[in-house]
């Protein structure tokens, strides 16, 4: 039985994503940016970990956009989230697409108690900036990974440029995201996330920036990690 009594979740954040759940697979909805960056996220993961035949858990999977993509590459994917409405949408879409993902409504900390060291690959994308205790999520992701396994994160850095682009620009000027999507105080600098990862027994292998060009309306990966960024970490063999 899990000893996790209080899930690491913000009720307001959960309600916000639950309200939008029916729009997860609409590529022109509030989730349009996730659809557009998904090939970049998938490519970044595959640069480090071959997904075919791997056991993968997607933490904070939402409606299953990344989960389905990894399953389509031949991975056995478990998607976990605390928004049941989002998971219902994910399950329905899986039935329509024919892509199999095991979706579970469970906190990552509770899953880590239940299935420690069970996964070759752990992904946690665009979630850390929405939870009260990101270090707890990072530690749980590490516990879920097998020794020698891979853990991938993506989130937003905390600095004036990130505030201008990810909040003012994306939410108020360009309208890429609904207003109030992000709380600037919860953004994580790469150095802060790297420290959390090291404390959890993870080695930082690669840090990549993900930027949006408003003129071409295209996202790309590069070395500029001042706003959105991805992090590839390797679980220490001795853990």
UniProtKB/TrEMBL annotation:
Keywords: Methyltransferase, S-adenosyl-L-methionine, Transferase, Ubiquinone biosynthesis
Pathway membership: Cofactor biosynthesis; ubiquinone biosynthesis
InterPro entries (alphabetical): SAM-dependent_MTases_sf, UbiG_MeTrfase
Enzyme class name: transferase
Enzyme Commission (EC) number: 2.1.1.222, 2.1.1.64
Source organism, top-level taxon: Bacteria
Keyword S-adenosyl-L-methionine (UniProt): yes
Reactions listed under catalytic activity: a 3-demethylubiquinol + S-adenosyl-L-methionine = a ubiquinol + S-adenosyl-L-homocysteine + H(+); a 3-(all-trans-polyprenyl)benzene-1,2-diol + S-adenosyl-L-methionine = a 2-methoxy-6-(all-trans-polyprenyl)phenol + S-adenosyl-L-homocysteine + H(+)
A GO molecular-function descriptor: 2-polyprenyl-6-hydroxyphenol methylase activity
UniProt keyword Transport, yes or no: no
UniProt record similarity statement: Belongs to the methyltransferase superfamily. UbiG/COQ3 family.
Purpose of the protein: O-methyltransferase that catalyzes the 2 O-methylation steps in the ubiquinone biosynthetic pathway.
PANTHER family: METHYLTRANSFERASE (PTHR43464), UBIQUINONE BIOSYNTHESIS O-METHYLTRANSFERASE, MITOCHONDRIAL (PTHR43464:SF19)
Name of the protein in question: Ubiquinone biosynthesis O-methyltransferase
Originating organism: Parachitinimonas caeni
Gene name, Swiss-Prot/TrEMBL: ubiG
